[in-house]
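From the shared-data thread, chain only:
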Amino acid sequence: MRYIAHRKESGGKTFFETLEEHTKKTEKYARKIFEIDVEEKEKVIEAIALHDYGKRFKGFQEKILYGKTDEYSDHSLPSAAYFLEKNVLSLIDSTLNGRKLKKAVDFLKNKDLFFLLSYLISKHHSNLGKFIPFAKAKGEYNHYFFKPEEDCVVPEYYSEESFYKIREIVEQKGFYSDVNGWREKIFRKLTENVSVESFYFKDPYSVFIYSRLFYSLMVSADYYATYDFFQDREVSDFGRIKNINKLFDTFNKKYEKMLNAKNKSEINKVRTELSRKAFSSFIKNGDKRIFFLNAPTGAGKTLISLYLASASNVKKIFYVFPFNTIVEQTATVFNGFFDKKSFKVINSVTGIDMEKDGIPVAERLLRTEMMHHPLIITSTVNMFEIFFSNKKKHLYNFWQLQNSLIIFDEIHFLPLKLMKPFMRFLEFLTKTLNVKVVLMSATLPKTILEEFVNDKSLCYSLLGEETLYKYKIFKQRVKPDMLRKIPYSDKEGYEKLLDDILSRIEHEDKILIEFVFKRKAKEFFYFLKENATRLKDYKIRIITGDTDKIARSEIIEETKEKGKMILVSTQVIEAGVDIDMDIGFKQISLFESEEQFMGRINRNLNSKNPKKAFFF
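Structure, as tokens:
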């Protein structure tokens, strides 16, 4: 019988895709994107290919052919049931050659894998939930066992709560018709004994990662196959790196020229030394998985990390930042080194590219949603959704983590209470999916991160802890000081704060003033505008989380121009923002925040004499 998987209307005509055609396309795409080697890889691909097998049901066929909705038409659960029945019962049959029951059950070591794959099939049109409740049949899974040879009609509805009750359905269909009753005994034993403790992958982290990988491969292969039919356009480029030397050719030429330049400033000499050392350490420790790059603010961590990436044999590179402001600034840096088609910003404020190059909108959307670019610049929130969310829309791209390099900048912004689960997850992710990770920070010591990792042989500090203290040039750029211990929280306080600022900026052009709260920053900004006559030739600007990216970019560029300027801000300028001011005034907060703020003062050592950062 010819079963239909999809239909589309085009040019006044109706076109159908058979279930056989869709199954073959899904398998084809699964093989293209499934890169790592795992046990039973062919069985995983089989599960992906058979994810829509339940569309053979009469209800689904009548719905897609005639629009009828009076029959049951769901196909996910029947597909899952068919896969489990097919594989578990075939394994049982393979053990019925005189084996004792216990030995037969022990022999079926893969049965937990089949339960997992069956569960993932049942969820391919919804979000992931918990595996164990599914295995215990808290939902409706156990209602849909069927034999593929029979008419595709939904079997009688059963309401049993426990998963092992599946055997009653199987018994009624005669699946246990062997002389000695071995199949019934073994299946009864199997369905009473599903748990994470006995799971095929042995530990919960592996279960978690493999579950997400297999699910991601399944829904992505299905997505590509469906897109192929509806758009009549095969997907051939998945945004994987084919030739990393070619990708980084322009960067390598420009960066090597910078490193080899003569007559460098003192700070650029130090940056060159740090780059060379980090690169050498990265190459020599290729067996490591997690790298720490601890360097002071202004040391050039972004360019150093690109230098490392150029030497990594990976298929995808992710740059991850805690704030969208840094994401946008990094994209600006990338523009100077890479072709625009080779990288993509993916976050909550950036849409799809709409350049006039003849590419259909549907393909543009596909490239963005499925991360079809070799270099991805994204936010920590977006990456954590890929790592940990159970939503289908976030899991599409989990497979893209295979054979990748993930660079986390400003890792100190992750709350300390999340460090342990985060580092443990990275430990298993890097080993399981052949991933390398670089964690960068100016304030978080490697020892804090490393204490949360069980296998410390995976980790390596590229510059060593002494780098934070070795170079006097960094600590001599700016000196901290205190203003008067009075409140600066109302108009009277703002008057005193302005007096203190004016008494200290006589010979300074670029002034940075930071508040912890956005409301206070805005209040003081408007207060300065009202008192502009006291500020002579100073332009007054403000950057907060509400400042749009165009205005923010223009203001940052203004800080690099000649002339006097006062910039009022919140903490958004602390991380990864390339500004170099002459003097700073900051509302006291956390120690790490103070250090980041000081990294914006005399950043490039334009003054050999230390500049001042005042705290209030």
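Residues 132-180, 193-200 have pLDDT under 50 and may be disordered.
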